[in-house]
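quick one, two chains, predict together pls
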Amino acid sequence: MTVIVPPAPAVQTTRPASSAGGHGPVGWMVLPALVVFVAFGAVPLLGVLGLSFTTWDGLGVIHPSGLTSWRAVLTDPGLPHAMWVTFKIMALSWLFQTPMSILIGVFLAGHQRYREFLAILYFIPLLLSAAAIAITYKALLDPNFGLGAGLGIPLLQQDWLGDSTLALGVVVFVVSWQFIPFHSLIYQGAVRQIPRSMYEAAALDGAGRVRQFFSITLPQLKYTIITSSTLMVVGSLTFFDLIFVLTEGGPGDATRSLALEMYKTGFQANLMGPASAIAVILVVVGLIVALLLRRLGGRGDESQLEGA
Amino acid sequence: MATVVAPEGGRVDSAAAPLRSRRRRTDEREPRNWVGGAAGWLWLVIVVVPLYWIVITSFKTRANYFATNPLAPPSSPTMENYRFVLEQDFARYFVNSVIVTLGAVVPAVAVSFMAAYAIVRAGEGRFLRTTNSMFLLGLAIPLQAVIIPIYLIIIRLQLYDTLLAIILPSIAFAIPLSVLVLSNFIRDVPRELFESMRMDGATEWTMLWRLALPLTRPALVTVGIYQGLTVWNNFLLPLILIQSPEQRPLPLALWAFQGQYGINVPAIAASVVLTALPIVILYAVGRRQLLSGLTAGFGK
């Protein structure tokens, strides 16, 4: 679960409640949540940093070992490769998902009955587990038993998951298949909030549909695009289930992203120290990307009210 | 999809608004959106074909599957694949998934609700302010990145290979977003209501149950649905923390089943359909709730 939150709400939530009449007796109510969160959220976050300075095989004793793990990770050619794969998946899936999601979101924002019916079907992939989706595609794309073989169409009958280039493409496609509905949902909501009067005014000025899209819809969606992109980009850093079940990082290491590299280092090669170091890199890269995208979106305190 | 952003000062309550259908007739003279329409229909086909394929395949016999056009409906539908899948202990995996999901979501929503209430009601307290910022930071922690220390903690607690091992981290990771969404809702409860109940001598504990709970019930359902779906579909935690086959929740069982019977495509299809069925039924029953749950915490 990857989420970006700007610091703003922290201030908002603590808006003095003048009528609260003292704050003594409520404070304890936060404790159960706090205890569980600290134990399985905050402590592990510090723990992963700590473990990156140790040597541990996952079973035996944990030995502090200074920078050994970091040195091993940073000199391993696997790391830049995993980063490159992660970047490719991130960039390609963004390039594919964003225009598609906007188009579908705009389309679904219409209030026609048939579109509401279509929407029911569109959102089904949102409900399925990544494991189920990956297994479906794995069976569907199988060169001997899948759809291509059955239909006898040579174009479809390729070794989709056995060829390095194709496998990466398949990962990007399946990721998009799973997440485009989610982003369309976001865009649908945002488009519906654009005041109709803006379109009416534009229509009076003689602007056509395409012109309206580029001069009203897109600019009005600016913040939605940034939010959705942040979700896509940061989310793609941590894709694990889908790639793991679909290709296990293969063929070779063609789809071995950072998250997979971490899993394989830690839980298959039993090198928990270096795996923790990769996890730290994952967190840091995620935060940097999220912050950069926030920058792109202008000041954090800017109004989110589109079209107001 | 397990990814949510809270925009600044996110007024989460508005999240449901865009979904509420406004069955207003659109202006008939509106120019047609050809590009959007083309993309819309194309994507519909792309979404539907794999779903259609997996469903019809699950009703085919193996012989039939290899002999016929994969997109043609089965000539003589069979339940054989479902019987086979159920024989592989899927009922047990289903129960495991239900235990894990309920065991994580109910406590997670309950403690988050209490925490959100405290955070909203207490105003300036330094302790609660720090706690709240910590929860907000928690939203930025990806589960993948902390899975190794979680594994270590679970081993040390001697919980490895138990359902509790999945439940506890699931609760922890549900808390930040739940607190954020719920506190936004509790903040919308008019202060006068609290004030008048306090005048009547109600304690904070009474107000929590008698006032805040009924007024934020829709938000609790929304949060519960979102977290439920996240936990139900989680694959990483069981993959790392579960070893024995009989403790597997559905996604992990699905993966193991596929590894074992990979070439029996109809059986694989049946297993996928069977595990997706409960959620699809839920979707059919409460579509709007579910979709607004998915964008909870998202504001705009």
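Residues 42 and 94 of chain A are 30 Å apart (CA to CA).
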